[in-house]
Design brief:
Layout: H1 13-22, E1 28-30, E2 33-35
Antiparallel strand pairs: 1-2
Length: 49
């Protein structure tokens, strides 16, 4: 798992990786077997007031 880009750099990368590692995914299946599937997603942090 890696961060491809961040704005501002060096601020939220570790928090994003920590958050995504806690997610649980349903595996992609082909012919009934789980297969590896590359994924790319955007994580946005917003300020709660």
């Amino acid at each position: 798992m890696s961060v491809v880009a961040a704005e501002p750099a060096g601020v939220f990368e570790s928090a994003a990786i920590d958050a995504v590692r806690r997610w649980r995914y349903e595996p992609v299946r082909r012919d009934g077997a789980s297969v590896a599937q590359p994924a790319r997603l955007r994580v946005r942090f917003t300020e709660h007031r």
